[in-house]
Design brief:
The chain has 253 residues and is α/β, with parallel strands linked by helices. The protein has two domains: 98 residues, Rossmann fold (3-Layer(aba) Sandwich), CATH 3.40.50.10860; 126 residues, Rossmann fold, CATH 3.40.50. The strands form two sheets. It has a six-stranded mixed beta sheet with strand order 2-1-3-5-6-4, with helices on both faces. The protein has a six-stranded parallel beta sheet with strand order 9-8-7-10-11-12. Helix 4 crosses helix 5 and helix 4 packs across helix 8. The longest helix has 16 residues. The two termini are 26 Å apart. The structure holds NADP nicotinamide-adenine-dinucleotide phosphate (NAP). NADP nicotinamide-adenine-dinucleotide phosphate (NAP) binds next to helix 4, helix 5 and helix 8.
Length: 253
């Protein structure tokens, strides 16, 4: 039996567990099992590795996408550059960290892009924001980071005016603001300057249409939530867990 799972804390409701259990059933994958591993402290991952010798792969969620790195033997090049991981491949020799959030975001945004989408405003400076910035750079889109804290990014929310909204026709919410149960909240930006040239992309997927996306839709913008990104990052993790080494060297992760 090959074992896969998710580490994070707390793990009250897990998209990944449902996704993989359904995938195994739908695709008649009989020798695999997906488990949840809520770790109160990241050091507990040592014991997890020790006890579960059949473990082949892990997904990693909040709050361990950065702190787990020191417990791994290696990182792939892109994960190294991003500085955060959400996927671990385990074999007899080593435990290697990957970032599939970035490719999930990139591939879900791509179909929406038009020629004028050359500058993006990225709200929030956490692990997800790092993956998003890397993906945007790969797509040739320049990024301006926005933080609540002065000095932590190029802009704070108070700096955002009409000119900045006009110049940045992609706006991405990489903060948890607006996520269930706080569904009446949204990032503090001047939505009245948004128009039909804009894409508003929310990494949050619960609710499906956040207040951020509702404001964008009202202004005529193209809107997109984080569900496809979530599904793609899970599929890409599955590909990595099942890749043999020479394929891995040739892959785009
Ligand atoms: N769809 C997907 O596949 C996917 C993948 C990854 C993450 N996500 C979602 O993306 C969001 C961010 O994830 P993350 O791991 O980067 O989370 P995080 O590290 O907890 O937060 C990201 C950043 O959001 C900002 N922030 C936090 N609380 C805020 C508040 N109350 N008001 C305004 N800004 C706030 C902070 O930046 P500043 O301190 O600089 O303001 C923080 O660094 C989460 O909702 C997560 O569920 C979705």
């Amino acid at each position: 039996m090959k074992l896969f799972g998710l580490i994070g804390f707390p793990l009250s409701h897990s998209f990944s567990e449902k996704f993989f259990s359904e995938k195994f059933e739908r695709e008649d994958i009989e020798d695999c099992k997906y488990e949840l591993y809520p770790l109160e402290n990241i050091e507990d991952i040592r014991l997890l590795f020790e006890v579960n010798k059949d473990l082949k792969g892990l997904n990693v969620t909040i709050p361990y996408k950065e702190s787990v790195i020191e417990y791994l033997d290696d990182l792939d090049d892109i994960a190294q550059k991003i500085g955060a991981i959400n996927c671990i491949k385990i074999d007899e020799i080593q435990r290697v960290g990957y970032n599939t959030d970035y490719a999930g975001f990139r591939d879900s945004l791509k179909p929406l892009l038009k020629k004028h989408h050359t500058q993006a405003l990225v709200l929030g400076t956490g692990g997800a924001s790092k993956a998003v910035v890397y993906a945007l750079q790969e797509l040739g889109i320049s990024t301006t980071l926005v933080s609540r804290k002065t000095g932590a990014a190029q802009l704070t929310y108070a700096d955002i005016n009409k000119e900045i909204i006009d110049n940045h026709t992609i706006i991405i919410n990489c903060s948890p603001v607006g996520m269930y149960p706080d569904i009446n909240q949204c990032p503090d930006i001047p939505y009245q300057f948004i128009n039909s040239a804009h894409i508003l992309y929310d990494l949050v997927y619960n609710p499906g249409k956040t207040m951020f996306l509702q404001h964008g839709e009202k202004q005529g913008a193209t809107i997109k939530n984080g569900l496809e990104m979530l599904e793609l990052q899970a599929e890409y993790a599955w590909e990595i867990w099942n890749q043999v080494e020479d394929e891995e060297a040739a892959s785009g992760y």
